[in-house]
């Protein structure tokens, strides 16, 4: 049964190769993976660094910012629970980066408005800069792949044109030689050759 599923995947890959635009899209994405890899590494480093900061400053283990009755508010406690470990902080930051919303952090923003400013800087850098760079890398690689495919198609077209020209030249030469071969022996004399070349 699993073998049949694998065969379906192979059929799907064959289908991708048969459809030109889909094939160029797949090639463009494959070529863009190298550039995307470095953008993703940078994104991971940024998320990791920011997650360490937010875990230390906002997480429940930190009482540096959160003291008194405001720290006991259920919404703030719930927000602080999101930043218990660096891993959970990274996930929350990634989620806020990809969901286009910082509204879940409003209770913390009310308590400390400076955190709102830091969140806006993070949001602008993560969403607008890094995601735009990633989109640009993918677009540029896909355009380069399409141009490369177009050049290959043009090169193949040039070979076909050259092949047709050679075929026409061959048939023209065969016709000339058949006219010069007056006795039909398949060879021509020296005089017939000179007459063919000079006139």
UniProtKB/TrEMBL annotation:
<protein>
    <recommendedName>
        <fullName>Ion transport domain-containing protein</fullName>
    </recommendedName>
</protein>
<keyword id="KW-0472">Membrane</keyword>
<feature type="transmembrane region" description="Helical">
    <location>
        <begin position="36"/>
        <end position="55"/>
    </location>
</feature>
<dbReference type="InterPro" id="IPR005821">
    <property type="entry name" value="Ion_trans_dom"/>
</dbReference>
<dbReference type="Pfam" id="PF00520">
    <property type="entry name" value="Ion_trans"/>
</dbReference>
<feature type="transmembrane region" description="Helical">
    <location>
        <begin position="115"/>
        <end position="139"/>
    </location>
</feature>
<feature type="domain" description="Ion transport">
    <location>
        <begin position="2"/>
        <end position="141"/>
    </location>
</feature>
<dbReference type="GO" id="GO:0016020">
    <property type="term" value="C:membrane"/>
</dbReference>
<dbReference type="GO" id="GO:0005216">
    <property type="term" value="F:monoatomic ion channel activity"/>
</dbReference>
<keyword id="KW-1133">Transmembrane helix</keyword>
<keyword id="KW-0812">Transmembrane</keyword>
């Amino acid at each position: 049964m699993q073998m049949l599923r694998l065969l379906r995947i192979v059929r799907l890959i064959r289908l991708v190769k048969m459809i030109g635009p889909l094939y160029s899209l797949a090639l463009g994405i494959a070529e863009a993976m190298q550039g995307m890899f470095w953008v993703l590494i940078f994104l991971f480093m940024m998320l990791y660094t920011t997650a360490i900061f937010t875990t230390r400053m906002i997480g429940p283990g930190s009482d540096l910012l959160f003291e008194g009755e405001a720290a006991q508010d259920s919404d703030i406690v719930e927000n602080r629970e999101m930043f218990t470990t660096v891993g959970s902080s990274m996930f929350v930051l990634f989620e806020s980066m990809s969901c286009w919303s910082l509204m879940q952090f409003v209770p913390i923003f009310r308590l400390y408005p400076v955190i709102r400013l830091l969140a806006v800087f993070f949001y602008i850098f993560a969403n607008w800069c890094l995601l735009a760079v990633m989109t640009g890398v993918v677009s540029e690689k896909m355009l380069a792949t399409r141009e490369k495919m177009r050049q290959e198609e043009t090169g193949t077209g040039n070979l076909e044109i050259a092949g047709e020209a050679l075929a026409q030249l061959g048939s023209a030469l065969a016709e000339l030689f058949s006219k010069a071969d007056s006795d039909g022996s398949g060879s021509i004399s020296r005089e017939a050759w000179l007459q063919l070349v000079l006139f």
